[in-house]
Amino acid sequence: MTIQFHSIGTAYLKYKGKIPKHWSLADIEGTLIIDTAYRAGLQHIRAGQRIVVLCYLHRSPEFMPEFLTQALPHCQDRIGVFSLRSPIRPNAIGVSVLDVLNVEDSILHVKGMDLFDGTPILDIKPYKDSGNLTHDACWVHDTHNHSVGA
Questions:
Q1: Is-above-0.90 flag for pTM?
Q2: Average pLDDT along the chain
Q3: Using H for helix, E for strand and C for coil, what is the string for 45-81?
Q4: In the chain, where the domains are located
Q5: What does 14-54 look like in DSSP terms, one character per residue?
Q6: Region 107-123: what's the mean pLDDT?
Q7: What was the pLDDT predicted at 72?
Q8: DSSP classification of residue 130
Q9: Which helix (H) or strand (E) element contains residue 12?
Q10: What fold, for 9-57+92-126?
Q11: Which residue from 94, 97, 112, 100 is spatially nearest to 29, judged by alpha carbons?
Q12: Smallest Cα–Cα separation from 74: which of 84, 63, 89?
C-alpha cells in the first residue's frame, strides 16, 4: 500500500541554538506559514490555544531495520522505536504541541517549537487535555458520535 502526504505549510524559526527534543521542554518561538489554499482551515484558531502539529521529520535518516531498537545515552539497554520519541522512525512523522501566540492571515506565531527551521507541516489539530474538551468552537458536535474530530 502506498500512502502519500502533502505539506500544508512550513515551520520557521530564527533560533540558532540546540532544539529541545520534546515540546514540553521547549520555550522557542517560531512561525507556521500555512499555504493560502488551507487558510480557511485556520478559522477558530486563536491566541492562547494549544495546537497539535503533525510534521514530516525531513532531517531524519532513512529508516533501516537496525533502527527498530535504539540505544539512548542514559540507558544500557536498546529500546524499541515505538517506545521512543526518536526522530528515526519507519515513517518520519513528528508530533508537537504548540502554544498559539497570534494568528495573522495564514501565519501562526507559536511558542514551544521543537522543530527545525524548514520542517514541513502535514496537519494541525486542536489540543485536547482531559480536563478541557469543549473550548474549541464546534469541534465535536456529539461526544457519542465519533464521525468528527480525530
A1: no
A2: 84
A3: CCCCCEEEEEEECCCCCCCCHHHHEEECCCCCCEEEH
A4: 9-57+92-126
A5: ---SPPPSSGGG---EEEEEE-GGGGGGGTT--TT-EEEEE
A6: 94
A7: 82
A8: T
A9: strand 9-12
A10: Elongation Factor Tu (Ef-tu); domain 3 (2.40.30)
A11: 112
A12: 84
Are 120 and 6 within 8 A, CB to CB? Answer: no
Cβ atoms of residues 14 and 65 within 8 Å: no
With beta carbons less than 8 A apart as the criterion, state whether 116 and 108 touch.
no
CA angle (142, 146, 149) in 5-degree steps: 85
Q: Report the pLDDT value the prediction gives residue 40, as an integer from 0 to 100.
A: 97
Average pLDDT, stretch 45-60?
A: 95
Q: How far is CA 75 from CA 68, 97, 128, in A?
A: 16, 26, 32
The whole-angstrom distance between residue 120's C-alpha and the CA centroid of its chain comes to: 10
User: How far is CA 67 from each of CA 17, 20, 55, 91, 130, rounded to the nearest angstrom?
Assistant: 27, 21, 20, 12, 33
- Higher model confidence: residue 71 or residue 137? 71
Among 140, 91, 111, CA closest to 11: 111
For cell 508537537, the residue is 96
CA dihedral 66, 84, 58, 108 (to 10 degrees): 180
